[in-house]
Amino acid sequence: MEIQQLTTNMMDYYSEFPAPSLEQAKNEIIYIARIENREWVSSSDSCDNMNSLVSEAFRNSDVLDDDNKIKYSLMGWNVFGTKDVFDAIDNILEKRRKTKLRRKIRGLLRATYLLIKANKSSIEKIYHPDSHYVNNVLKNDFESQISNKTND
Known about the structure:
Elements: H1 2-14, H2 22-35, H3 39-43, H4 47-60, H5 74-126, H6 132-151
Helix pairs in contact: 4-5
């Protein structure tokens, strides 16, 4: 019972402290992500990409008030705010991954369509009655086969 009372008193104590500034919170998110070996930290090409991702996550999550200050206390930030920002980062990365996959699939479909169209066009050009192939090659083959049948 005494441990629970001590924990409650500590949480009440920390809830009186203000949340960190926005820059401190961003640095804290990046630091925690590096410690936890998050995928997006290692896959980010540069520090600017990581900072822009974290900034976008802060805008998308509901942790900032109208003055761009964190609207939680220190305890609220540590318990709820960091989780909200990490969830927002995961959502952003999932949207980017889906967009990239959509773009690849669209490219494959376009390439397939163009290949089918080119194949159909070339077949039509080859077997058109006025084409070089029909007038020379097929006509000669046809005439040679007819002459072979009449000679037999």
